[in-house]
Structure prediction request, 751 residues.
Amino acid sequence: MKSMKKLMAAGVLTIGLTALTACGGSSSGGSEDIDSWEDWTGTITIWDGPRWADEDENQYHWIEEKAAEFEEMYPGVEIEIVQQPWAELGDALSIAIAGQTWPDIAPVDISGGAISINHIESGVIESTDDFFTEEELTDFYPNTLEAYEYNGSLYGIPSGVSVQTMLLNLEIFEEKGVEPPVDGRWTYDEFVETMIALTDDEVYGFSTYILDSYYEAWPFLFMDGGYPLNEDMTEYTFDSPEAISGLQKLMDLKFEYGVAPMEMGGADVGGTFQAFAALDQRTIAVQPWSTWAINTLQTEEYQMNFMVAEYPIGDLGEPVTIGGVGGYVMFKQEDEFKRQMVAEFMKYITSTEEQYVTAKNYGTFPARESSAEMNPHAENPHMAAAQELTEQVISVPMHPDWARIDEVIQSELQLALNGEKTAQEALESARSEVERILNN
Amino acid sequence: MAAQQNSNTVNNTGEKIIIPKKTVWMRMKENKVAYLFLLPKLIFFTVFMLIPILWAFVISFQDRGVFDVDYVGFKHYFEAFQSPIFRAALWNTLLYTIVTVPAFIITALIIASFIYPLGQVSQAFFRSAFYLPTVTSMVIIAMVWRWMYNYRFGLFNYIIGFFGFEPVNWLGQTSTALPSLMIMAILIPPGAGIIIYLAAMNNINPSLYEAADIDGANAFQKWIRITIPLLKPTTLYLVILSTIGSFQVFTQIIMMTGGGPGYSTETLVHVIYKTAFRDFNFGLASAQSVILFFIIMGFAIVQFKSLRTEK
Prediction:
């Protein structure tokens, strides 16, 4: 009986101690007895996704090298790298934020994906205003800074830009005897004419897909002047005649001209890309993709002879596209010296040199003018062509509930592109739910 | 057992004797060794299941920011039912459950009934053959089925094209997307159900079948009159389990349709997932989870009452 009681007591004690140990956490350094942030010692945690591989197929080698260099510059500082696949980073970060166990740095923006303006308002994201002089900021392209700005303050450091481009399979153009657009520029009518010439029993001229948070199709909706929300983001405006006309032009490719397959507008991202790129398919001549696809199509697996073109020009009179800005944000810090050290590391990995290196190897465009002047894509004419499109970028609204608004609009776009609603019905149907979100 | 529950009873000689009632605590003390062995599992259950469930219930009445908490009463429950997306997801999930659960049970029962009369070696072979696919990840299964439903290269359109029919945009039309997911759920072999039914069938007393043979019953009559009634507790167990699984359908949705086109394949768990981890609205997501919990509980109670075997 006594031994049983002892056994139970030991069990309870063990569980209690385990729980206490688990709750204790680990120290990440301190600022006692130091006068400057440069003397701070401790651990900085950064989450990062896989980038380009080295000869050992290590896709984290770049950030590992930068961490080692920084540790050498600041003895006593340890950079802990947490490898996060891009597809899982958003969810992992959301869970970490909910549990207040966020890293010090993560490669996200504030556009409403893993991080939103709500997080800035609640103090989860640190402002980076204090760490840049006005002069330093002039080196960044203004639109890249805008992606990290809220209420006049900067919340992060942009490190690269990507844009959506039209990719043309030149093998199909050649086969059909069709000339690609001069300098990659075409009007909507010229685009339709070309797509008709490319389409036959085996090949379609154009295709794309519709899915939450993906915007390959959206420049069509912008081409005549449509935009989802008004300037102060209080009103839904995507049912304007301009937006309806843009969507109608996209739908016409499928229903009026028959140059797009029946599956255009579905949610199958991989299937859409494979129909364009896979060696045993290649049944679509033109598709819009973000710049990552340029590097992919140049790999041994695909080896496609292709060119980069602009989206067709609509009533706006000039081509438009959608782009994304990548970079790093800093999460809430308790220690002022650590905050400065974290900022220093962020500046280190987003310097002119590093933005040049990542742009060149990772298929993005620098956010710094000084990096762009180093011409990272001098040997890659496709990327150089895509870089010119960065000037045409229109971004989606930076609204705290953009992810929900986006979902409502995208689901209506799916219904329009599968022929269940007209352009007007689809864009008008989204109004009530979007306004409910805006007014909530 | 009955004597333990009654304080008054009568012995063989007709004398009334009083047996003291045993409290729950007294009975637990009697079985303390058993409880000790159960303790680790109970602790894990409490820490990782019970507390989070209760916590979700609490959170459903809160607006939770990262650093602050406001109690908002039933606001999130009203908000959930006001949302057309949640209502669509609720309807789709109900429809999915109503179609797939009976199909799962009937298929498992029929296949198990065909396997049951076979010899031991054949039974083992078919048990393995039907069970093995269930260890495959749903992610892989969903990817394969997405290919089979592909408009231009998919197996289904190839087959119907062979018979001269026009291809169908299976996952791209609101009219066919949810039925396509249901067909997928129905056509995946119900391995676990077959195994459990076979185990239950092997426990049926063979003398019942022998008596039926003497009475001249044919195979179908024996199946209807003996097998199915005696499998009722197993059926109840499988119905409840598969209903819970069906209400929690998620992987197929996120892999194959993302809830579209429109909201035609939106389901409750997918909505909960988006509300929590995309919109960071943990209060609303918890309210949606609690609603799902009560729906499943309601279904389980109805199923239990209608299918339980009277002693």
